[in-house]
Specification:
This protein is of the alpha+beta class and about 290 residues long. The chain has 2 domains: about 200 residues, no CATH class; about 80 residues. Helices cover about 40% and strands about 15% of the residues. Strands 6-5-4-1-3-2-7 form a 7-stranded antiparallel beta sheet, sandwiched between helices. The longest helix has 23 residues. The relative contact order is 0.15.
């Protein structure tokens, strides 16, 4: 067998880094309605690890499930951008999506209602993004505007010895300066199912699965005592109502814009639908369960 014939192409995969503790991430991550594992990625960061999922060439449990991605034809970057956007708007912390497939690798940072910012490399490591995006990313994450930005700029320069995986590892090395410590078993570029299995073996990892609205509301007494609980839909408080209105306001145009796109819009459809559903739930609960 020739070397070319025996070579296997990297499978698509992704990691979602959230700037919050797992206890704060778990209630919001349920809204993605996708099975994942959640574990720490430093003192102030968590990482969500999906298995082979709804993206192109995926073969995970989503393939036969409900949702716009059930045909498995959506590229991984668009799927995780939709996830990151939905998580970041629904929570007071940013979300960084790292993703890779057979041809590309990159990242997307979502933060509140701001437009997501990201960068892309070819599989060979050739940068195809804009330097300005890296500078915006550095400012939003809180990196040093001189030393850290210089390190990021190196990731946008040609380097014949750095492939896409090396670029992502270089990005993580810079992010270590703001507290990101990704477990060694969760290396970007590995197959998604292998990462999921590695995350499941970690002693502090938690499963993230959609429990259904009834079960989610049943957990409200536990979540209400956390800082995040003040913003969850089943609290009915002022913060929850304000967030619900904001989610509806953001979700409607995202959904409409995604539906108008002839191709590549399902990631935004997903984000818009999740925001609308969560916002509608919050408003409905606020009206049907008014607080004394």
């Amino acid at each position: 067998m020739s070397t070319e014939a025996g070579r296997t192409e990297p499978a698509p995969g992704a990691l979602l880094l959230c700037r919050a503790a797992p206890a704060s991430v778990a209630p919001v991550a349920h809204l993605l309605r996708a099975p994942m594992r959640l574990t720490r990625a430093g003192d102030a960061w968590s990482v969500l690890v999906p298995g082979s999922g709804p993206w192109r060439d995926g073969a995970g449990p989503w393939r036969d499930g409900a949702g716009p991605w059930r045909d498995g034809t959506e590229p991984v970057d668009r799927v995780v951008t939709g996830w990151a956007t939905a998580l970041a708007v629904g929570a007071p912390w940013p979300v960084l999506a790292l993703w890779w497939d057979t041809d590309h690798a990159g990242f997307t940072l979502a933060s509140g209602f701001r437009r997501p910012v990201g960068f892309v490399w070819l599989a060979s490591g050739v940068p195809v993004g804009e330097d300005e995006a890296l500078h915006t990313f550095a400012a939003r994450v809180g990196l040093d505007p001189v030393l850290d930005v210089q390190a990021l700029d190196e990731l946008a320069e040609p380097d014949s010895e750095a492939d896409a995986g090396t670029r992502l590892r270089g990005l993580l090395a810079v992010l270590a300066r703001v507290g990101v410590v990704l477990p060694a078993e969760l290396a970007p570029g590995e197959p998604a199912d292998r990462l999921l299995q590695a995350a499941a073996r970690m002693p502090d990892s938690l499963p993230v699965e959609w429990p259904g609205w009834r079960d989610a509301v049943a957990e409200r007494d536990t979540v209400d005592h956390s800082r995040l609980g003040l913003w969850m839909p089943w609290t009915g408080g002022p913060g929850a109502r304000a967030l619900a209105l904001a989610q509806v306001a953001a979700g409607a145009p995202l959904l409409s814009w995604g539906l108008r796109r002839r191709s590549g819009g399902w990631g935004w459809v997903t984000a818009g639908a999740l925001l609308l559903a969560h916002g509608a739930l919050g408003l409905t609960y606020a009206f049907t369960h008014p607080r004394d």
